[in-house]
Amino acid sequence: MNTLVAIFLAFLVLLSPASASANRVELIGAGATFPYPLYSKMFDVYWKQAGVKVNYQAIGSGGGIRQLTNMTVDFGGSDAFMSDEELARAPARILHIPICLGAVALTYNLPGNPKLKFTPNLIAAIFLGKITKWSDQGIAEVNPEVKLPGLAITVVHRSDGSGTTFVFTDYVSKVSGEWEKKVGRGKAVNWPVGLGAKGNPGVAGLIKQLPGALGYVELIYALHNGMPVAAIQGRNGSFVQPSVASTTLAANVPLPEDTRISLTDTVAPGGYPISSFTWILVYKEQAYRGKPMEKAEALVNLLWWMTHEGQEYTEPLDYAPLPAEASGKAERIIKSITYNGSQVLK
Description:
Helix content is about 40%, strand content about 20%. By secondary structure, the chain is an alpha/beta fold.
C-alpha cells in the first residue's frame, strides 16, 4: 500500500504545472554581460516560482543581437538598442523591452583608491591617449584635494562586442567632437590606446591587477569588487556619483514608444551622465522555426514578470528599476507580441 501511495504522489507531482512546465519549456537567451548579475537572480527566482528554466549566456550585446538575428536563441540581451539598419537586416520585426537601468562607471586602481572626479574633456583626453599620467595638471585641477601619483595611466576597455562599450562611446561621442570624428560610437571600436578584456568581469579583473589602470564597467562589477568609482560632471556643471538614484534620474526624459533611446549626457537634473536602459530583444511574431505556442507563452509570461514582480530584485543589486513611463511602454510592447497573428498575452 505504501508503495502505491508513493507512486500516486509522484504521479501527481509530475502532473503539477511547475513540473510539467519544467519538463517542457526551456528558454534560451544570450547577450549583454551588463545585466548578468540581475538576470541570474531573476531567472533563478522565476525557475523556482514558475518552473520555467532560462539558460542565459552572457556573451556581450553584439553576440546576443547576432544570435537573435540568426534565430538561434529565444531572446537577446543588449545594452545598445539596435539601429534602423540592424533592424532592417533582421528576418522579422524585433521588439525592445526595457528591463532596468544601469550605470557605466569609471573605475581605477590607485594607491588608497581616492575618490576622483572627471570632466567630459578629461575622459575624452585620457581615452584618446592625450593624457598619460595620473599626475597630469588637468586631472589635478579637477581633484585638488587628492595627491595624485606619477603613475602611467593604463586604459582598459572591452575586447568583445559590447553594449557597455556602446553606452560609453556614445557618451564620449556626445561630449567630444574629436572623439566622435576619430573613434565614434559602437559596440566595438578601434581604440586609440589601452588593453582589452572580455566582458565586464574581465575589465574589472584586469584593472584590479594593474596599478594605474583606468577603465569602464557596469556599476555593479565595480561595487562588488570593492573598486572605486568616479563622479562625472553633468551638463549643469555638477559632479554626479553613479548610484541607483542618479541612474533613475537620468531617465527622467520623454521616451519614444519603442523605448530605443540614448540616455547618455542626459539633460535630466541630477541624472548620472553615463546611464542606459538594458533591453530584452524578441521577435514580435513568435511562430517561427517550428516554435510551439507554449514556448511563446512562457517567454511572454517571463517578460511580464521581469518588468513587474521581478523589479524588486533591481535595487539590491545596484540596478535602477523601470520608471513608471518606461514600465507602461514595456507593458504595451509585451502585449503586442503575437503567435500566428494572435496576441499571446491574454
